[in-house]
Amino acid sequence: MVAAETLTAQKRIAMLGPPGAGKGTQAELLAGRLSIPRISTGDILRDAIAMGSQLGRQAGPIMEEGGLVPDDLLMGVIEERLQREDCARGYVLDGFPRTVPQAEGFESLNPGVTADMIVFKLEVPKTELLRRLSGRRWCPKCQATYHVESDPPREDGVCDRDGERLILREDDKESAVARRLTAYERQTKPLIEYYDDRSCLRRVDGDREPQVVHVELSTYIGVPR
Ligand code: AP5
Fold first, then answer.
1. Between residues 6 and 123, which one has the greater pLDDT?
2. Of 19, 108, 153, 210, which is most buried with the most CB atoms under 10 A?
3. What is the pTM of this model?
């Protein structure tokens, strides 16, 4: 039995874990449950690429290769996003912070944030990560995510929400996945110690059914189902 923790009025939650760990899936479920926004830096960047903005032109080639977008670009993106009104009651960060400089930048934007923040680290074996990423299908219009085996759309290859044709994300191709996993090991893993030192990190077994993982996360934040 995990101990329930109650966040302060503003709920600030971050999802940490390697590519395919289920950060997006769990962030979406938690955000829905708490009626706060899920803020996915990956989705924001993919939107920027689709719009052909300057940010998109800078981030696109890096993401396609499986590298991390430079911290200074990311900080501008997140600062602007967190100022919006829908963040007043809190948010679930999906894929941010991803480096120690980003975590430091986030703390300087929100002094004292780690006192009442929870960072969930989803733990999933590498073989399962590879299975999830190779089977993931993605809607380029609404960014909904599916899996060919474990979470298929109602109609094969078609998004349930908007009927758009589903595709394999560029960075889910094998060579990019290998680079994303390396980037996680080198640049994101140091965050584990960073948040452990600040007593915010909660390790969660992410290698279970999505709803089972969600129940555990909900219990941690004091809203058990
Ligand atoms: P981003 O979009 O954040 O990708 P990621 O972190 O690599 O994570 P993924 O989206 O691949 O996986 P996920 O953990 O969210 O898993 P999901 O729930 O989708 O970032 C993409 C790129 O943008 C980065 O590589 C970088 O270039 C750039 N970027 C973004 N943020 C950045 C930052 N802060 N700094 C610098 N650069 C940044 O699930 C995956 C699949 O598994 C799905 O098919 C799903 O259906 C399935 N699944 C999920 N949970 C389960 C489960 N419990 N059991 C079985 N299947 C499951």
1. 123
2. 19
3. 0.94
